[in-house]
């Protein structure tokens, strides 16, 4: 089921249906994939692509090329990718709030910022207890204006996706909103809290821990959301991965979790789909390690995947959460 020919021309030649990128591990996955839709590659040439976020009004997705300090724009109508912003602090995760404003996690200087309608940039948080954040990574926005973000410090490891430095704070998950004087610490038990996603009803939060051990390569944890996002409770292990690393994640309207995957095996990189019980249903195999993903399009039924240097999409038979 792997894409043996990963050259650019391979994506321009006709291929039979169903696309060989689809892999079915459980019959239930047949309800989520479309048999006559192709895997498309729209762009390649990035250094490390991350942080996709869908803007429904503009019909575009923004994403980060972290080492280049660039934010890029994929136009759904034309399929073109263009430069949106430069010198954006090695931005990683991006999201749009209920007012349509873009919110971004920046590795260095480490902060979470919001792009206002007048073109100005507001720093939402940069320090906790007088100490600089590690390197904010990913985030989700809540209906009431709150933001949950992770701070694992990956952007402080080497001078490539940020600035190499010692971490000043524990690796944590935080909550912020405009009414607070300081962030609320939601969790500090994960070694490397990374990608996050909310269910459609905003009652459950998922987060990836990409710290490898001798027994697993990464884990996905789940919490119940309380007090409008100001508290997480009932933490449990949702998925334990033994051969791949999960990074960015997204939920569909049925509660399934779509998780990016990067592994060393021929068929290990792409996207893995789990049901609400953590059972693997199937996968989308890509020729590159997948870092992050989001649902895009008029019906939010198109999955956009950022895989190392390239941007891919494929239509699905489900819809992403709003």
UniProtKB/TrEMBL annotation:
UniProt-recorded name of the protein: SMP-30/gluconolactonase/LRE family protein
One annotated GO molecular function: hydrolase activity
Swiss-Prot/TrEMBL keywords: Hydrolase
InterPro entries: 6-blade_b-propeller_TolB-like (IPR011042), SGL (IPR013658), SMP-30/CGR1_Lactonase (IPR051262)
Taxonomy, superkingdom: Bacteria
Cross-referenced Pfam families: SGL (PF08450)
Every SMP-30/Gluconolactonase/LRE-like region domain range: 50-307
């Amino acid at each position: 089921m792997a894409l043996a020919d990963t050259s650019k021309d391979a994506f321009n030649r006709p291929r039979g249906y169903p696309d060989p990128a689809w892999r079915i591990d459980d019959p239930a996955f047949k309800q989520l994939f479309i048999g006559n839709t192709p895997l498309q590659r729209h762009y390649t040439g990035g250094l490390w692509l991350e942080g996709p976020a869908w803007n429904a009004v503009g019909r575009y997705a923004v994403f980060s090329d972290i080492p280049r300090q660039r934010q890029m724009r994929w136009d759904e109508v034309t399929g073109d990718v263009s430069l949106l912003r430069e010198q954006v602090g090695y931005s990683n995760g991006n999201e749009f709030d209920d007012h349509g404003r873009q919110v971004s996690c920046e590795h260095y200087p480490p902060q979470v910022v919001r792009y206002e309608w007048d073109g100005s940039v507001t720093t939402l948080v940069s320090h906790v207890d007088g100490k600089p954040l590690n390197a904010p990574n990913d985030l989700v926005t809540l209906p009431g204006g709150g933001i949950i973000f992770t701070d694992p410090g990956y952007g402080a490891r080497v001078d490539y996706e940020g600035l190499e430095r010692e971490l000043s704070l524990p690796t944590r998950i935080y909550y912020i909103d405009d009414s607070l004087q300081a962030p609320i610490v939601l969790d500090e038990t994960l070694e490397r809290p990374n990608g996050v996603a909310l269910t459609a009803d905003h009652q459950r939060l998922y987060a990836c821990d990409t710290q490898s051990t001798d027994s697993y390569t990464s884990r996905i944890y789940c919490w119940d959301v309380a007090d409008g996002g100001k508290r997480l409770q009932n933490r449990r292990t949702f998925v334990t991965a033994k051969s791949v690393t999960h990074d960015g994640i997204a939920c569909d309207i049925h509660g399934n979790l779509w998780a990016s995957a990067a592994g060393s095996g021929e068929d290990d990189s792409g996207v893995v789909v789990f049901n609400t019980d953590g059972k693997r249903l199937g996968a989308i195999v890509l020729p590159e390690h997948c870092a992050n993903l989001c649902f895009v399009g008029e019906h939010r039924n198109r999955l956009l995947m950022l895989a190392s240097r390239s941007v891919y999409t494929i239509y699905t038979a489900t819809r992403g959460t709003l």
